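Suppose you are handed a protein chain with no further information: no name, no annotation, nothing but its sequence. What can you learn? This example shows the usual starting point.
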Amino acid sequence: GDDKPWWAVGQWAAQYERQAVALTEAERQDVYASAARCGLLFEVALAPMWYGTGDGQQLAPSTSRTVIRTDTGEAFKVVGSEYELIQNALGLSFTRDLTLAGDNRVRTMGTLANGRQCFTLIDMPDMVITDEAHYPYVLTSWAHDMTMPLISGPVIERAVCRNTVRIGVGQMGRFKVRVRHTGNVELKATE
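A reasonable first move is to predict its three-dimensional structure. Written in structure tokens, the prediction is:
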């Protein structure tokens, strides 16, 4: 194998400084241990919104809701009534399923913008795709702020930051799986 250290990108601070930690081989084999080290074991919830007056009086409930991070209470985005949450557990389950087969291991994972976007990258040394390019990794990324659905597919770039995650999503082409934030996301993910 590769003798380079395995890095996991932690949460980005308000100044977007990267906080990276080196993963042990045991953590690379255990998705949830890696996720714990990288700050991915949090949930999001939908909080109700109310219409009100300028003096603070609540008038009526809104059909809009706010996506909040439950461990910090940080509000991520106001969403409509059709929006369905994609929890980190769903993205991590995609990753876990890939690591259970063959010699596949976590390469990187992390959160961007205080958890608004999350990603995992898996080494896939035995993957063969009959296309022009060789794809040694599978990137899974999702957002809690309506900027992207859960998307998973083969990539050639190692994802370590917002830019390389965007590049990876662009590389997926026709081989990707997408789960949008509408309808029954759990059912769509299993299909």
